[in-house]
Specification:
The protein is of the alpha+beta class. It has one domain. The chain contains one helix and three strands. Strands 1-2-3 form a three-stranded antiparallel sheet, with no helix packed on it. Strand 1 and strand 2 form a beta hairpin.
Length: 53
Amino acid sequence: MQRTTKTVIDSAGNFWAVNNWKNESGIDNTTNPGGDGVVIFVGLAAPPLAKVS
């Protein structure tokens, strides 16, 4: 995990992270700066509180 661009905790308490990193330095800055990795940490976080309207 070197360049995390977005994280979210789902309703089950799983932590999702988008890893925007590629192994080749020339690709990062020129032709395709976006990475292709999504990492899930199952059960890492407490589920978020439900919104009350």
